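Incident review: delayed structure delivery

Summary: a single-chain prediction request sat in the queue longer than the usual turnaround. Root cause was a stuck worker, restarted by the on-call engineer. No data loss occurred. The affected request and its eventual output are reproduced below so the record is complete for anyone auditing the incident later.

Affected input:
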Amino acid sequence: MKVQNFTMHRHLACLLLFSAPFVAFAMSTPVNFLQCLSLHSDNATSISTLVYTPINSTYSSVLDIAIQNLRFLTPSAPKPLLIVTPLHVSHVQAAIICSRRYGLQMRIRSGGHDYEGLSYLSEVPFIMLDMVNLRSVAVDAEDETAWVQSGATLGELYYRIAEKSKTLGFPAGVCPTVGVGGHFSGGGYGTLLRKYGLAADNVIDAQLVDAQGRLLDRESMGEDLFWAIRGGGGGSFGVVVSWKVKLVPVPSTVTVSTLQRTLEQHATKLVHQWQLLGSKLPDDLFMLVSLQSHNSGPNRTRTMQALFSTLYLGGVDALLEVTKSSFPELNVTRQDCTEMSWIESILYFAGFPIDGPLEVLLNRSSNTKTFFKNKSDYVKEPIPESGLEGMWERFFEEDEGVAQMIWIHYGGRMSEISESALPFPHRAGVLYKIQHSTSWTDGGNEVAPKHVSWIRSFYSYMAQYVSKSPREAYINYRDLDIGMNNVKGDTSYKQASVWGKKYFKNNFDRLVRVKTAVDPGNFFRHEQSIPPFSS
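Output delivered after worker restart:
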């Protein structure tokens, strides 16, 4: 999420190396794999144009364009034997069948924003299924629904909705280059979460290709699998080709504001008070706080900057009434606010000019690529001011502007949905979610150990203030530090529970049961995929 000059970066991780057997394997597989794809595809004549191998001149550009984290855009990072860019479902089915035949793992990429790079990195021989060509969006404004393919970005989804209606929206994220497939699979949230919940809460059907290559919809896959793919994380149960979503009503006018406060402007007290607002605010109001350190204090001394960014589903007069009654200390004024349409608010929170062309949402390329590492937390009790001051001290140990936290209010609709309704369990009782981030450009990978060490140390400090037993985490902010499966061989339920309970709490057990039923051979797997019981 980018608000003014603050950017929520999307992160990828896991530096991996080629092995000699891998390279030897790569030399012999592509030809046979291509023949297999042709045999099992309905439209075999187009196969050669959809597959890229390392000898293709465009292979690197196809692979690299969606990689968001410069830490892993390196020659030493492992590369897929082939990249398959399907044009229709039969190509997906063929890729699964042929990967199984040749003993290859499959990584699935829709937008490339996986924080740990699990959609395009693996230590074992693998192919990458890049969904970039499967990105159609069909909006039915009268029925208030849309079918969207997994390769579409959120920007493309929003653009197509705006083409058909000015009073319909969808409660997904604010970064327009994020792919629908991964976003929906992990839950997905944005500025409408307090009003309408997660993106996954508003998915009403899907088309999925399973490990046997069968195309299934909600009815044929059954309610257990349909439950699992809406929040259980990508890459565990099959390839979701498309999703049917319920669009939501938005007013013709919304209001946004962003206010900056420093320590000298009482940011500590304001941030402390912000924590208590979730249960007091109307569902129509979304307010996040973004925290960074900057040398903007007196005499250029280091200080903390807090950005309070708001979306209100209504006009400025109503917003001012709400903020005056619920958070008067912030002193929001009419001059701080701007009325606009909902689609313009998408541009605003993405950092684009609101009077610019909507076509910017169709650009799949990101201009915010940096080096970074992210983590997540959920807070259920307010952090005292002394705890906040301890956080500021640790921020000052990191380089200026490198460390960032983004706090997202919960409450509203999020508190009304049962934590077992979907695999995503973080519902009632959560005050807010934290995204921890450290991102940099100066020094590149040479300084990565320093910054990664800082965020791990900061994460340890935060343990006393966040959820416990388990310390909860958000699956779409994937973090291999909290645990991982074996790269080779089976992974026990006990081992996977270390990370699985943090993402899914008690829902992890049901996810494992679903996995055991639909993919007992564990074809769809990665470092944090759901394992079957047989593993």
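Verification: Residues 1-27 have pLDDT under 50 and may be disordered.
Action items: add queue-age alerting; document worker restart procedure.
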